[in-house]
Amino acid sequence: MPGFLCDLHIHSCLSPCGDEEMTPYNLVNMAKVMGLDILALTDHNSSLNCPAAARAAEEAGIAFVPGMGLKNPKGIRNVAEWYMSTAMRRDYVQTVFEKQTDIAIANYQRLWDTVGEKVDVVFTCGTDFGTQDSQFCSLDTFRELWLPHYKRMNDWIHQHTTWKVFKHTCGAILPILPGLVEAGFDIINPVQINAKDMDPVVLKKEYGSQVTFWGGGIDTQRILPNATPEEVRSHVLQECEILGKDGGFIFNAVHNIQANAPVGNVVAMIETLRELRNQ
Hints:
Blueprint: E1 6-10, H1 24-33, E2 38-41, H2 50-60, E3 63-66, H3 79-88, H4 90-115, E4 121-125, H5 139-145, H6 147-160, E5 164-168, H7 177-182, E6 187-189, H8 200-207, E7 212-214, H9 223-226, H10 229-244, E8 249-250, H11 263-277
Parallel strand pairs: 1-2, 2-3, 4-5, 5-6, 6-7, 7-8
Helix pairs in contact: 1-2, 4-6, 10-11
């Protein structure tokens, strides 16, 4: 099973959660020790360490992806008021989504003109539709408010580029998945197999021919922090066998590896992937 090992969400000393030892050079060299092929630096509100990380990655033979996480973006509403607006101000929400989609399509045209087929996948939206046990909206509400705008954007991408479209949404999204498929998303992430009804067997059976699962490779809530290395290995093999059958699967942990995950378990996960790659 050929592939690449990557970490696409890491912070340096410039982020509030980082410390002074998390320099670009140290991060890249730790990635090299871990055997990673690709590394992304996504500091909070800053990209100042990206040039140094890019130089270190080039020397280490690691592909580097520059990024930035906006912790305090300028928004139109706080979260609570936004969700109330989806029920009380739907005309307003539709207007916002329509304008956002106009801007997105114009930006994708610029990106296509610049990078073209050098890019295979585009991350279009990270709105979460699931909680641990439920959804933020019903399928009917999704179809009324979000689907028309997602579909217009995704249809443009499919008609004017060669890209596949990546959708991130955490949580128990099984009831929402039909709408995401109708909207034209090609890839679903992070496939939170520890959320309610997110059984990988069911997901693969019902939607494996319609979307690619980018995630679901290991449970980072229960297995990675609490299991033994051998249990981690067994879990990774099981998830890869289920979700990887007949293709349509990219291994990724269910969201970020938490601070309480033993290093030995992380190593066991990576070594198991190496075994699979060499089969």
